[in-house]
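# nightly structure sweep
# worker-07 picked up a monomer target from the shared queue
# config: single-sequence mode, recycle default, output format = C-alpha cells
# input follows
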Amino acid sequence: MKRIVVASTHEEAGKTSIIIGIAKTLSEKNISCGYMKPLGDRLLYQKKRLWDYDASLVSNILGLTEKPEDISLGFDHNKLRFMYDEQSTSKKLKEICNNVSKDHDVVLIEGGRNLAFGHSVFLDPMTIARNVDAQLLLILSGEGSEIVDEIAFLKNCVLSDSSNLAGVIINQVKDIEEFKNLYIDIFNDLGVPVLGIIPYEEVLTHFTIDYLYKTLFTKIIAGEGGLMNVVNHIFVGAMSAAQVITKPLWQYENKLIITPGDRIDMITAALDSSTSGIVLTNNILPDDPIIQSKADARNIPILLATNDTFAVAKLIDDMEILFTEDETKKITLLEELVKKHVNLDFLN
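# output follows
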C-alpha cells in the first residue's frame, strides 16, 4: 500500500488536476486509487451538507464509494482546534486513511493551499505525511527561477529529513526544453527527483457557461441547452454594435459577451456571431421577445446578473477556474499529460 501526500507551495499549482491524471492513468493499469483531503479549503454547500469542492470532484470522477464529507476532517481552523488536539487529530487522520486504504492499492492525499496551511491544527502536508506514513509529492509551478528558489529553500531549510520526499512534478511549463536546459541540473545537485514536467495547456484555463452560472449565482433566462459551451475569449460590450463588430476580437469564436440588458443591438449582434454565452448586467431584462427564442434556438445561454458591467467583468477576471466532472475532454487531456510526461514508477 502506497500513500502519497500531494502538496504545493502555493495555490493553483494544479494538485487536484494532477491527482486526477495520476489516478486515471493508474486505473488503466488495474491499480486502484483512493483519495482523501484532510483539510478542506474550498467550501461547497450542497444538499444541506458541507464538503470540499476538490473532494467532491475527485470522488465523482473516480467513482469512489466514500462520501466527500467522510474523507475530510473539517474546514474551519477554530472548530478543528475545539474538536481535536494533536493526539486526537492524528488518531482521526489515521482512522480516515485506513478506511480509504481498505480497497485500494494507492491512496492520494491532497494537501491544502500551501505547505504551511493547516500547521496550527496539525493538518499541514508534512505533518499528515508523518502521521500516516506517506511520501510527499510536491507540485511546483510558476516562473523557473521562482521554482528553483522554492525547492532549494525547502530542501535546505524545511525538509531536513527528505527521505520521505518522493519527488516533484513541475506543472504548467510553457517551454519544457528551455526549463530542462536552465534548471534541471539544479534539481539534480539538490538531490531532488523530478518525476515529470507537464506543459502549459491553455484549454485547461477555459471555463464553461455552466461553471460561470454557478460561480456568479446568476439567473438563466434563455439558451439553457448551451450551458456546456466553452468560453475562450471575453468581450465587454460597452460600445455600439456597429462599432463593436469591426473589432478583431469580435471575430473570435467561443466568446463570452458582457453587456447591460438594455443594449438590444449588442445582444442581437452577439446572437448572430460565434458566441458561447451572454451575461446581462444591472439586472435588466431585454424587452425584445425575439431575443429569448433566438437564444434558445441557437443554444446560446443568456445569464442575468445583478451587478453592473464593470463589477461582473472584474468578478470573472478574478474567478478561480475549477473544472467540473462534466468536462470529459479536460479529464481525458489530464490523463494524457500524465501518461506522456510523468514517471509513475515511484508508486511501484
